[in-house]
Amino acid sequence: MKKLSEYKGEEALDILADLLEPAIEVFADKEFARLIQAKQIPKAVKVALKNHKSAVLDIMAILDGADRATYAPGVFVLPVKLIEILNDPDMMSLFRSAGETAETMSVSASESTTVDSE
Protein backbone atom coordinates (compact mmCIF):
# COMPACT_ATOMS: atom_id res chain seq x y z
CA MET A 1 0.00 0.00 0.00
CA LYS A 2 1.45 3.33 -1.07
CA LYS A 3 1.37 6.30 1.26
CA LEU A 4 -0.74 9.19 0.08
CA SER A 5 2.35 11.41 -0.21
CA GLU A 6 3.83 9.00 -2.78
CA TYR A 7 1.17 9.86 -5.37
CA LYS A 8 2.07 12.74 -7.70
CA GLY A 9 0.41 14.72 -10.49
CA GLU A 10 -2.68 13.28 -12.16
CA GLU A 11 -2.36 10.04 -10.21
CA ALA A 12 -2.62 12.07 -6.97
CA LEU A 13 -5.75 13.83 -8.27
CA ASP A 14 -7.34 10.50 -9.19
CA ILE A 15 -6.58 9.01 -5.76
CA LEU A 16 -7.94 12.06 -3.95
CA ALA A 17 -11.12 12.02 -6.03
CA ASP A 18 -11.63 8.33 -5.33
CA LEU A 19 -10.88 8.61 -1.59
CA LEU A 20 -13.03 11.65 -0.88
CA GLU A 21 -16.43 9.97 -0.63
CA PRO A 22 -15.44 7.03 1.62
CA ALA A 23 -13.25 9.34 3.74
CA ILE A 24 -16.16 11.72 4.29
CA GLU A 25 -18.37 8.81 5.34
CA VAL A 26 -15.91 7.50 7.94
CA PHE A 27 -14.82 10.85 9.38
CA ALA A 28 -18.37 12.19 9.55
CA ASP A 29 -18.93 9.53 12.23
CA LYS A 30 -18.72 11.58 15.42
CA GLU A 31 -17.62 8.63 17.57
CA PHE A 32 -14.80 7.77 15.13
CA ALA A 33 -13.64 11.41 14.98
CA ARG A 34 -13.74 11.69 18.78
CA LEU A 35 -11.63 8.55 19.19
CA ILE A 36 -9.11 9.76 16.60
CA GLN A 37 -8.83 13.12 18.38
CA ALA A 38 -8.27 11.26 21.66
CA LYS A 39 -5.59 9.14 19.91
CA GLN A 40 -7.51 5.96 20.72
CA ILE A 41 -6.64 4.35 17.39
CA PRO A 42 -7.64 0.73 18.19
CA LYS A 43 -11.10 1.86 19.32
CA ALA A 44 -11.43 4.11 16.25
CA VAL A 45 -10.48 1.15 14.05
CA LYS A 46 -13.23 -0.92 15.67
CA VAL A 47 -15.82 1.81 15.06
CA ALA A 48 -14.75 2.17 11.42
CA LEU A 49 -14.80 -1.59 10.83
CA LYS A 50 -18.19 -2.05 12.50
CA ASN A 51 -20.02 0.99 11.16
CA HIS A 52 -18.40 1.68 7.77
CA LYS A 53 -17.44 -1.67 6.26
CA SER A 54 -17.98 -0.69 2.63
CA ALA A 55 -16.18 2.66 2.96
CA VAL A 56 -13.20 1.03 4.71
CA LEU A 57 -12.94 -1.62 1.98
CA ASP A 58 -13.23 1.10 -0.68
CA ILE A 59 -10.36 3.06 0.90
CA MET A 60 -8.15 -0.01 1.22
CA ALA A 61 -8.83 -1.19 -2.33
CA ILE A 62 -8.09 2.26 -3.71
CA LEU A 63 -4.80 2.50 -1.84
CA ASP A 64 -3.84 -1.05 -2.83
CA GLY A 65 -4.71 -0.35 -6.46
CA ALA A 66 -7.11 -3.30 -6.37
CA ASP A 67 -10.48 -3.84 -8.02
CA ARG A 68 -13.07 -3.15 -5.32
CA ALA A 69 -15.42 -5.79 -6.77
CA THR A 70 -12.91 -8.56 -6.01
CA TYR A 71 -11.02 -6.98 -3.10
CA ALA A 72 -11.20 -9.33 -0.11
CA PRO A 73 -8.35 -8.93 2.41
CA GLY A 74 -8.10 -11.47 5.21
CA VAL A 75 -9.23 -10.97 8.78
CA PHE A 76 -5.70 -10.29 10.05
CA VAL A 77 -4.87 -7.90 7.22
CA LEU A 78 -7.82 -5.54 7.73
CA PRO A 79 -6.94 -3.99 11.10
CA VAL A 80 -3.23 -3.79 10.21
CA LYS A 81 -4.00 -1.93 6.96
CA LEU A 82 -6.45 0.39 8.69
CA ILE A 83 -3.93 1.21 11.42
CA GLU A 84 -1.35 1.89 8.67
CA ILE A 85 -3.79 4.32 7.06
CA LEU A 86 -4.56 6.05 10.36
CA ASN A 87 -0.84 6.41 11.11
CA ASP A 88 -0.16 8.12 7.76
CA PRO A 89 -0.12 11.89 8.56
CA ASP A 90 -1.08 12.84 5.00
CA MET A 91 -4.01 10.45 5.03
CA MET A 92 -5.19 11.73 8.39
CA SER A 93 -5.00 15.29 7.11
CA LEU A 94 -7.17 14.33 4.13
CA PHE A 95 -9.66 12.48 6.34
CA ARG A 96 -9.91 15.34 8.83
CA SER A 97 -10.53 17.78 5.98
CA ALA A 98 -13.13 15.44 4.52
CA GLY A 99 -14.84 15.09 7.90
CA GLU A 100 -14.89 18.85 8.41
CA THR A 101 -16.31 19.27 4.91
CA ALA A 102 -19.07 16.77 5.68
CA GLU A 103 -19.89 18.54 8.93
CA THR A 104 -19.95 21.96 7.24
CA MET A 105 -22.16 20.64 4.44
CA SER A 106 -24.66 19.17 6.89
CA VAL A 107 -24.80 22.42 8.88
CA SER A 108 -25.15 24.50 5.71
CA ALA A 109 -27.90 22.26 4.38
CA SER A 110 -29.93 22.75 7.52
CA GLU A 111 -29.57 26.56 7.57
CA SER A 112 -32.41 28.71 6.35
CA THR A 113 -32.12 29.98 2.81
CA THR A 114 -34.83 32.60 3.24
CA VAL A 115 -33.80 36.11 2.26
CA ASP A 116 -35.11 38.89 4.45
CA SER A 117 -36.41 41.87 2.52
CA GLU A 118 -36.04 45.31 3.96
Structure notes:
69% of the residues lie in helices and 0% in strands. With 118 residues, it is mainly α. It has helices at 9-27, 30-37, 41-51, 53-64, 77-86, 89-110. The protein is globular, with a radius of gyration of 16 Å. The model has no long low-confidence stretch (mean pLDDT 81). The N and C termini lie far apart (58 Å).
Keywords:
single chain; 118 residues; mainly alpha; 69% helix; globular
How many helices? The count is 6
What do the pLDDT scores average to?
81
Question: Which quaternary structure do these chains form?
Answer: single chain
Largest sheet: none
Shape by Cα distribution: globular
Radius of gyration: 16 Å
Question: Can you lay out the helices and strands and say which pair or pack?
Answer:
Elements: H1 9-27, H2 30-37, H3 41-51, H4 53-64, H5 77-86, H6 89-110
Helix pairs in contact: 1-4, 1-6, 2-3, 3-5
Short recap of the structure:
It is globular and about 35 Å long. The chain is an all-alpha fold.
